[in-house]
Write a structure and sequence with these properties.
16 strands
Length: 422
């Protein structure tokens, strides 16, 4: 798309999102297909990154990488917006106390200020080397592109589970960015992470969506996985064909790879205690609904996750551990295979009997706990619903798992039938 950049911009400085400095070089007359060694085919932001690179709006590093997870500084972001947009220079930039005239991004910072994208701090500084949080990126884009929210800001921001972390100055601009579909949240579309440092991938996604909003880049195809992380975009593959949203009340929905599932043991917040080396089959329940960007419930509260507590070997360590591995998810009577697991939980030999009241303890762990705690009546809280497999590998420690604190994460996309929003 030769219309994306004017000729002067094609020969200007390209911001290599996250580099120590930007590299100035002449660009070829025609764009080349960009592929980076560290941006795999299933990397969540690949379409944003490669489309911008193809249009020479962003660039990678000389070694063929893009380093998508590297943080972006305020100076680097200023260089990016200068290269991506041609907004008018409506105000005169001040002399920032910490931006000398020979600083590599001084001109880009001045232009980003004059275009309305960025401002300095009350003490006259710009803080060019400070890493920029995601909320500041969205505020900058909304301000520089003159986007204003319509309707209730609180209602718009209600799509984010962590809306309480959005600072007051950012609420209006973030709402405006949301309404213009600039916001891209990975891995959970309803978690903004406003204070999290923006990565090169984050910025590429936001910039691309801003160009889409301006009509200067095409919207991502509905079937691409990346489109599922755009707030306000329906995640159904093939949506957009025909009239309306392309979805019906029972059309399938995608729960993306990386989504966290909040769980607990059914009807109780209890510990599960197993012996190291033991495999234990058990079921957990979902405690927080998983929703998409349209507030549709994908996985409702009370859905059942069937799985196993399995032993884990920590390489190079004598510590034994276990993790929960999910096998199936049952929603409203329908069961789906699921690929999800928690981080390893190390075994311990410091358990005291007072913390085990009401816990579910396997028979193999019971004898170990008797030795650890000296409590001969520990068997009174054995959970009969749990059945163990395999013989324990240690008699000096147990693994204590609190289901409500598991970081149970999807390791691959999951497609489920839609249910009514609530």
């Amino acid at each position: 798309m030769s219309t994306v950049l004017n000729q002067s911009a094609r020969t200007a400085t390209l911001a290599t999102l996250g580099a120590v400095a930007v590299a100035t070089f002449a660009l070829p007359a025609t764009a080349q297909t960009a592929q980076f060694d560290d941006v795999s085919t299933n990397y969540w932001a690949r379409p944003f990154i490669e489309n911008l690179a193809n249009e020479e709006i962003i660039a990678g590093f000389p070694d063929g990488t893009f380093r998508p997870d590297q943080p972006v500084t305020r100076a680097q972001f200023a260089a990016i917006v200068r290269n991506a947009f041609q907004q008018p220079l409506d105000r005169t930039a001040p002399r920032f106390s910490d931006v000398p005239s020979n600083y590599w991004a001084s001109a880009a910072i001045a232009d980003a200020y004059s275009q309305g994208f960025m401002s300095g701090y009350p003490n006259g500084a710009f803080q060019p080397e400070t890493q920029i949080p995601r909320v500041q990126v969205l505020v900058a884009l909304a301000n520089g592109l003159n986007y204003n929210s319509s309707g209730s800001v609180n209602e718009v921001l209600g799509v984010y589970r962590d809306r309480g972390q959005i600072p007051e100055y950012g609420q209006g601009p973030v709402a405006a960015a949301t309404q213009n579909r600039l916001v891209v949240n990975y891995p959970n579309v309803d978690v903004l992470g406003p204070q999290r440092t923006a990565t090169r991938a984050d910025v590429a996604a936001f910039i691309y969506q801003a160009l889409v909003a301006q009509g200067r880049m095409p919207a991502l195809q509905a079937g691409l996985s990346a489109s599922n992380y755009i707030v306000g975009t329906a995640p159904t593959p093939g949506a957009g064909s025909g009239s309306g949203s392309g979805q019906t009340s029972n059309s399938p929905r995608l729960v993306p790879n990386g989504t966290q599932l909040d769980v607990r043991y059914p009807n109780a917040d209890v510990d599960i205690v197993v012996a190291p080396g033991q495999t234990v089959a058990t079921s957990l329940q979902i405690t927080e609904p998983v929703r998409n960007s349209q507030n549709q419930v994908l996985i409702p509260v009370g859905s059942t996750v069937q799985g196993r507590i399995v032993p884990v070997e920590i390489r190079g360590a004598t510590v034994t551990a276990a993790r929960f591995v999910a096998d199936n998810l049952t929603i409203n009577g329908r069961t789906y295979p699921i690929n999800a697991e928690s981080s390893p939980i190390a075994a311990t030999n410091t358990v005291n009997s007072g913390t085990l009241q009401g816990a579910l303890i396997t028979g193999a762990a019971e004898s170990i706990l008797t030795t650890i705690t000296g409590n001969r009546t520990i068997g009174s809280v054995v959970g009969s619903i749990i059945t163990g497999e395999n013989q324990p590998t240690s008699n000096s420690a147990v693994v204590v798992i609190r289901p409500s604190e598991l970081d149970l994460i999807l390791r691959s996309d999951l497609t489920v039938d839609a249910i009514a929003s609530n």
